[in-house]
Amino acid sequence: MVDIFVNKKFEVEPFIDALQWLESKGLPSPVKKENMDGKKPGVPRLEYFINGNYFNVWCIEDLMDNGTSGSNSQEKFRVLPEYIRTDNPHLIISVSTAESTPDVQPEDTSLNGSVLMGEMFYQLDAKQYDPTSPSNLEAQPLAESFVQWQIYRLIQQCTPSINKLLVCPKHVGASRHALCCAASREFTSIGVINIVHYDAYAKADPAAYEAFKKENPDLVAASIETTHGIVKMSAAEAAGGKHRYPVLFVSPITDRYLHFDDDVDEAQNYTAGYNAGIAVGVLMENMTYSDLVSSPSPRFADSHTNAAHIWVKGEGISNVGYVLKEKKITTDQPWNSFHASSSKNNLLTFVVEAGRKGSSDVAEWFIEHSAAGMAGCDTCDAEPDNLNFAFTGEISFDYGGHTYTYGGYTFGQGHNARSRNNWWAGLASTAGQEIEIPCEGEEKAAISVKLFIKACGGTENEFELQITVLPANADI
User: Fold this and answer.
1) What is the model's pTM?
2) What's the pLDDT band for 167 if we cut at 50, 70, 90?
3) Integer Cα distance of 247 and 250 in angstroms
4) Do 358 and 265 fall within a single domain?
5) Of these four, 88, 126, 203, 325, which has the most CB atoms within 10 Å of its CB?
6) How far is CA 285 from CA 91, 176, 233, 288, in A?
7) Final residue belonging to a domain, choices 242, 276, 299
C-alpha cells in the first residue's frame, strides 16, 4: 500500500489530469474513481492496483473540516494520522507545490517546473509573521524518514522517462537542461507552519531558510513549503512516535527563491501540480512490491552529496548541458542520483548522490575513458590511482541557433588533493571535432569546434571548458 497525500484541491486536480494522460500511455486505470471530484468525505480521489501494489490518491484539503483554511497546519495534523493508521501504508508520498532555494537553484537561473524529492524534514514556527493565524502547531526538530533504498534506485531509473514528459511553466520556467526530476536522501524540505495568509511568505521563507542553514550547514535545502513536515509528523503520530511509515516528499517547484509574487499564479500552480502527477505516475507504473519492502539505507552511512562545477567559456555559446551515458562506482557503494544543471552564464554543475570509497577499478575505468587526456583538480599527479566514482557523457551547447553535442567527456572523484575528494576530468577522443552548421538555403558553413578543458587551480571541484568556433579552413 502507498498513500499519496496531495496538499490542496488546486494541486490535486492537475495531478489527476497527469495521471489520466499517463493512462493513455500505458498506466493502468484506477480500480476506483467514484470520488474523483472530491465530494465524498473520507474517500480517496483515486485508487489504483499496479504490480501487486495499492495506491490511494488523497487530497489533504478534502479531509479537513469545511470552513477551515486549507493552509491550517494544526487542522492537517489533526486529520491525517487516522487515515495513515487505517491504510497502514508501506510508503507515504507527500505532494506539495514549493519554492526553490539557493542550495539547488544556481544564481540567475530557475528550477520552476522541476520536481524535487527527498526524505529530510525541517520546520519553522512562522506564526510571528502571521499572528492572526488560527493554527498553533508545535514545530518539530529536523527529522529523516529512512525511505526504502530501492525507491531511490527506482527514481533514478525512471528519471529519463519523467524528464521527457515535464512541462515548462508560464513564468520563468527552468531552462531545457534544468527542467528535471531529481531526488536525494540529503534533500531537505523546509516547512513554514502556522501560516494561512500568503503575504506572510515574504518574511517567513527567508527566515526559515536562514535558520535551517545556521543549524544544518552541511545539508541541502531542496524546497520551502508548508505541508511535507506535517505529513511526516502525522506519520510518526500514527505509528506512536516510531519510524514505521517512511515519507518521501515530492516538491514540484512553482517559484524561484523569494519570488513568490513574481512567479506564482493559477497557471503556474497547475503546471507544477501536473508535473508532480507525471513524476509520481511514472513511479507508480514501475514500482514493485519488492521496492516497498526493501530496507532503508541510513543517509550518512554510505552516501554523500558530491558537486563539481565547469565554467564554460566561448563567444556565442549558450544553453550548455550534459547527459550522463555510463558510470562506474566502487563495488558495494551506492549511486542514488545524478543531476546536471546550467546557469545563464554557462556554469555547468553536477550533483552526484553517491558513496565515497576509492578503488583502483574505478580509476582504471576513468583512465580507459580518458585516452585523449585528463586533468585533476589541486594535484600534481598525472592520473588517479583510486577514485570513488566516475562517469562519462555528452556535452551539448547552442551556437548560431543550433544545438551541438560532443560525447566522451568523463569526470570522476577521488582522494588526491591533500586527503580531500578532488575531481578529475578526461576526454575519450579528439575525433569528431569537425561539424557543419546548416545555413539558410542549400549551402552549409563548415566550422571547426575546439574544446579545451582544464582544472581551476586551488580548488578540488572546479574546471574551465573553453569552446572555440572557427571556420574549418582557418589557420590555427
Assistant:
1) 0.69
2) very high
3) 10
4) no
5) 126
6) 15, 25, 28, 9
7) 299
